[in-house]
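ok so i was messing around last nite and threw this chain in just to see what happens. nothing serious, just curious
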Amino acid sequence: MGKRLKAYILLLLFLTAFVFAAVGCTLTIPAFDASKLDPAQDTILYDKYGQPAITLRPSRSIPVPLKDIPMNLRNAVIATEDNRFYQHSGIDLRGMMRALVRDVISGGKVEGGSTITQQLARWVFLSNDKTISRKIQEIILAAQLERHYSKDEILEMYLNKIYFGGQAYGVEMAARQYFGVSVKDLNGQKDPIGDLAKCALIAGLPQAPSYYNPFVNPDAAKQRRDIVLENMYKYGYIDQEQMEKAKAQPVPTTPPKNGLPADDANKYPWYLDYVLEEAENLGISADEIMRGGYRIYTTLDPTVQEAMQDTFRKTSLFALPNGKLPRSAAVVLDPKTGGIAGLIGGMEYKTFRGFNYATMNNFVANGGHGQSPGSTIKPLVVYGPAIETGRYGPNSLLEDRLRKYGEGAGAYEPHNWNNRYQGTVTLRYALEQSLNAPAVWLLNEIGVKTGLDFAKRLGLPVTEEDYSHLAVALGATSKGASPLLMAQAYSAFDNGGQLVKAHAITKIVDGNGRTLIQPDYAPVQVMRPETAQIMTDLLKSVVERGLGTAARIPGRDVAGKTGTQEYDPIPGMNTDLWFVGYTPEYVGAVWLGPPEGFNYIPLNKNQQGEYGSGKAAAVFQNMMSAALKNTKPSRFDFGRINVPPPEEDQPKEHRVIDDLAAAVSADGKRVDLRWTPLDGDVTYRIYRSDQAGAGAESFVLMSTVTRPPWSDPSVAPGKRYSYVVAAVDANGVEISRSNVVEVSVGQTTGSTPPEKPGEDKRKPNEDRNREGGNSNRDQERKPTPTPVPPPALQTPEEETNPSTGQGSPPGAGGR
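result:
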């Protein structure tokens, strides 16, 4: 049996079912009510308190008589939507059969069969359900419309009511929105070809207004416009020369300055854009919602949203020294419910459903980089997973030294942003100061899989490629992350280890009061409650004494993490500045990126210190202070855990050998070495070189001892020697190397001991809110003396593990 014969048999069966369905539908069809033709129903978005927050108004359509609508626009719509409009009586049976046969043969829907009259009936009277009963009701209502109105009246109603994207209902609003003119001015008198192309673009929009919006998808808009022009040529409305010239016309890519005024009923355009995106993910198209008649209940908190908008109007918080503004975005959500309280997708709202930097992940602009989370990823990929294993705590000691992982071209050597290394540091201190070397070392210890599996449970987009390298510890993931994803991930720390999917919609109701969608966002336990509480205590330290001090809110508990991503081609320039933080009430994520036209934040070298991640922290502070101004402060709950106090509140451990001294014995037969021993289970390797000013290759291992002092009896009169001592932990890893001392037998020279070993010269609450060389001022602390240690003594414990020797992918090096 041939394919076409099968199609006709199926068609016959369909028609039989159609007849029976039609009989049933006549009993349920809505009564024809001409009053419904005007005005259309509004769609209303409600805030978290059940109050109307945003109103979408199809009733704002600006009607124009058919005589003022250019003939090219009328012909373009007819050629594209219903070329037999003036021949049929509302239902084009020939067109329906042709479409049905093609759909059956192809095994899917490839061609529409609705006439202009049917589309008007569906738009005014019916839902957009894709069911046979709805289609039959549409046909019957179309027939009734044809009995009550002339063809020109139906066409006029259609052109004045159909949705054309953005705020545009009807052709007059479409002409103003896309071209900044009244529709009557597209009559071709001044620019025949240009006006023809504009009419064709407008006529192509109703099929999918959001998708074919030229400000959002210019390529798709042009392709659709050219199809309309081809249809006009096909049905004899224009000749081939007109078609080709009109196809060569550009499409608009930015809104005209004299376009439609902002809808005063939509005070929160970024939030509306995301609600429409989320509705589409839940199964209702944005275009369907925009046509009117829906009630959408959301988690919007007007106080939070308005506080965010007020902050983003303060351009002084963002402005670069050259006067340009960066790209920026922010999200605030409730960690207990996952509800998005406020959202800003850019510094300036330019067009309906344009690019939203708050929610659209991994942007690429002008050949630039994706939104790398930088060091804000460390709690999610390194420290959180390490705490979750139960093997690490706030005062666990981490290795802090310059170290290569892997060999050859694939070797990866993470550097601390301040180029200082202390041998070992506590986990708390490493996180406070956003040190890279300890973070990578710790990820290597727990395993990349452990780290990324934890991050996946928090909702971060992780790919197989990410499991192949250690640079993910610093934010070098293949997909990056949006502020929405980062806020969602941190919300689990603020909610006892439970994650609730971030969302804006709680319920959608249609015009008949029917609940269409009511998602159930149940909390998922993604980590132990103790892990969440320990991480909150650690992140609170970042704000109180670390690099996040610019995010402090007087009288409130704040926890969070800074993040910076360097632009690889130009060292010192940044592509991403972050702060992700939270109070007991809300979680917020702030991102700043390159201004329009740049791949990095353009600054002079002497300006870098003014524009680090603390800039994002300051935006967070301003935004959250205003958002919480009417909320009574509360405290983080640490009831389940007993967190050790920060390092500064404990007796200082001496973890660096910086006072090695040498002396020749009175009889000249030996050299005595002394140094201050380190705390803990440590042994010491003594290296010696027989050359003055020795290079690393000349040092040889002389002895291993458990404690100082040590004497070298194998010296000769008149010779000069150099010594260095390396401290080794219980795992055989060198955790600190001393200063180098030189001595001549019969004469002694040594290093001058520094201040009290281990003394920290930092001020207790020093404002160190910039990373990666981006501090407001130099940190007021004396660098740990580490003069010329042998850089490459070949000892067994320094051999890299081939399984962890990964190279650094593009974008690695978050701070």
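not much to say yet. The longest helix spans residues 3-28.
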